[in-house]
UniProtKB/TrEMBL annotation:
Transmembrane segments: none annotated. Residues 130-181 form the RNA polymerase sigma factor 70 region 4 type domain. SUPFAM superfamilies: Sigma2 domain of RNA polymerase sigma factors, Sigma3 and sigma4 domains of RNA polymerase sigma factors. Belongs to the sigma-70 factor family. ECF subfamily. This is Sigma-70 family RNA polymerase sigma factor. Residues 31-94 form the RNA polymerase sigma-70 region domain. It comes from Qipengyuania aurantiaca. InterPro entries: RNA_pol_sigma-70-like, RNA_pol_sigma-70_dom, RNA_pol_sigma70_r2, RNA_pol_sigma70_r4_t2, RNA_pol_sigma_r2, RNA_pol_sigma_r3/r4-like, WH-like_DNA-bd_sf. Gene3D superfamilies: 1.10.1740.10, Winged helix-like DNA-binding domain superfamily/Winged helix DNA-binding domain. The keyword Nucleotide-binding does not apply. CDD domains: Sigma70_r4 (cd06171). Pfam families: Sigma70_r2, Sigma70_r4_2.
Length: 189
């Protein structure tokens, strides 16, 4: 990667973090850095300048509302935004929001990718946050046992041995913890 592009990526990451923190001016910086590319993506999919402008506006409105969902560990900012723009444009085609004379809905099929739609990613992120909130509400022993078993992939026997407790106790902690976790998650639905 060229130093200039690395620097631009870091500036964009910083702007995304500022926006997630509620700094309004960051959206202007993000817009200046990305609008041409994102407009091009929308225009290529929609085939109509007005439709592409509307889709682009939807992208930045959604970004304003959901900037805190961006995870720099999972994607570069421009990749994340490009996926967001592509999905928004395809959504407009599928929902029939495209004006007469634009690209027909069938034309969206070749450009659709297998990546989940932005909305699906947001729903998954909300579910994940709910799981962690419910986990945090558990007592320390079951919480740590569940996290170690399910997030680190360790067996109950390994966890019990590492903690110096009987295997039956470990299994009981996990079983009771999972029951409380399930109840908490069902309450939140």
């Amino acid at each position: 990667m060229q130093p200039a592009s690395r620097e631009a990526r870091e500036r964009l990451k910083a702007a995304m973090q500022r926006l997630a923190s509620g700094e309004r001016s960051a959206l202007e910086d993000i817009y200046r850095a990305t609008s041409a590319k994102l407009f091009g993506i929308c225009l290529r999919i929609l085939g109509d300048e007005k439709e592409a402008e509307d889709a682009l506006q939807d992208v930045y409105i959604s970004l304003w509302r959901r900037a805190d969902r961006y995870d720099p560990e999972r994607a570069s900012p421009i990749s994340w935004l490009a996926t967001f723009a592509r999905n928004r444009a395809i959504d407009r085609l599928r929902m029939g929001k495209v004006r007469q004379g634009s690209v027909p809905e069938d034309a969206a099929a070749p450009v659709a990718d297998k990546a989940p739609l932005a909305e699906a990613l947001l729903i998954d992120a909300e579910r994940e946050a709910r799981v962690h909130t419910c986990l945090d509400a558990l007592e320390a022993n079951p919480r740590e046992a569940i996290r170690t078993a399910f997030f680190e992939g360790r067996t109950y026997a390994e966890i019990a041995e590492a903690r110096g407790i009987p295997l039956g106790t470990m299994k009981s902690w996990v079983r009771r913890g999972l029951m409380k976790l399930k109840a908490c998650l069902e309450k939140g639905e």
